[in-house]
Amino acid sequence: MAPNLVEPGQNSESNPPRTPRALVAAVIIMGVMIILGTVLLVGIIIHRMMNHSSASPAPAASELSRAAAGPASLAGPALLKLPRQADEQVMAVTARPDGLLAVTLKTGQGDARILLWQPEQARLVAELDLTGPAAH
Hints:
Layout: H1 21-50, H2 61-69, E1 89-95, E2 101-106, E3 112-118, E4 123-129
Antiparallel strand pairs: 1-2, 2-3, 3-4
């Protein structure tokens, strides 16, 4: 027999080396985990889409500052232009759930006004005058 010939059955191409069973098991387990994770993720997304309520929670401070600045679609910032009395100051700005801002103005004499402002259209919606009867 020639010394360069390989004996059949030891390392020939017809008999490739076997993959260890632990490696095959690990590949199968990881594949099952990927499938289960994908199904769980899709389930969570569908659940959140189906249970999304129309009433949103109270807006965060960053959302309030964005609402006060106006939407990005306006050419410039939404400006509230209103006739102010000589000593009138802004006391508070409150965001409402319907997207309006309630602006409270107060004078030095104690008279007050509340204005409802719609920042998306940069317009006043309503005004509540809280002046005393003696002022008229």
